[in-house]
Specification:
mainly alpha, binds iron/sulfur cluster, Endonuclease III, domain 1
Length: 245
């Protein structure tokens, strides 16, 4: 059986034979999965954003909505001159809402953005880098204390904006890794994150790429109802297609 790569080539026999067996829950297994994804996609250069503030805004806006819509909202904010901490802080709620309509729940998300910028303005005089200078655990606790910031958003900000090694997991991680037989479907966010962080060294570029690649698999192949297993680079290691084809 051949496993396709994005470049149209196939994995060779040795690569397929080296696939870890189910239950071999090791660093080797996680790195095998990483390598299959990386061979297919290459580097995904995630997270797109010209400034650390833009990355934070994207992390808040992307909750429950596609990245395509987030990009529209970011462009609107940019055009309106609100993609800077102080200008967003000074803008009216209505003006922000107008810009982020494409992200749905725009009223609630405006409150979240305002809570975030308000926190940085009041506690750090608008200096985001000052907050990011904290150690990772304190930074995470502080972010989680801001209205509207949950674990996934906090970890995205920590990893992609503050560049500290917090492994980001999400609904795609749960779906893909439960289909791979590694997690049960009811695994919690913290359990998933612990799983990766106990096995992979705290390496920002690795964590960055790993999450981006999982997102790539989720977007392109591993949909909820109709996963495209035949084309998926993880097929050789996945339980899900067995008996379904
Ligand atoms: S083989 Fe199918 S179920 Fe498994 S990760 Fe790929 S798309 Fe998802």
């Amino acid at each position: 059986m051949n496993v396709p790569r994005e470049d149209g080539q196939n994995l060779n026999r040795n690569e397929i034979a080296s696939a870890p067996k189910a239950g071999e829950n090791s660093i080797h297994e996680l790195m095998y999965i990483y390598n299959r994804m990386f061979e297919y996609f290459g580097s995904r250069s995630w997270w797109p954003g010209e400034t650390i503030f833009e990355i934070c805004v994207g992390a808040i806006l992307t909750q429950s909505v596609s990245w395509k819509n987030v990009m529209k909202a970011i462009e609107n904010l940019k055009r309106a001159g609100f993609l800077e901490l102080e200008s967003m802080y000074n803008a009216s709620d209505e003006a922000i809402e107008q810009c982020i309509i494409p992200t749905m729940y725009y009223r609630m998300k405006t409150k979240k953005l305002k809570a975030f910028v308000g926190h940085i303005m009041q506690k750090y005089n608008g200096n985001l880098t000052k907050m990011f200078n904290k150690d990772m655990d304190s930074l995470r606790i502080e972010l989680l204390g801001i209205y509207g910031i949950g674990p996934e958003t906090a970890d995205s900000i920590i990893l992609y904006a503050a560049e500290k090694p917090a492994f980001v997991v999400d609904a795609y991680t749960r779906r893909i890794f439960s289909r791979l037989g590694i997690f049960s479907e009811d695994v919690t966010y913290d359990e998933m994150q612990d799983y990766f962080m106990k096995r992979l060294s705290p390496d920002v570029p690795l964590y960055n790429e790993y999450h981006a690649l999982v997102t790539g698999i989720g977007n392109r192949f591993c949909s909820n109802k109709r996963p495209k297993c035949k084309e998926c680079p993880l097929r050789e290691r996945c339980f899900y297609p067995q008996g379904r084809e």
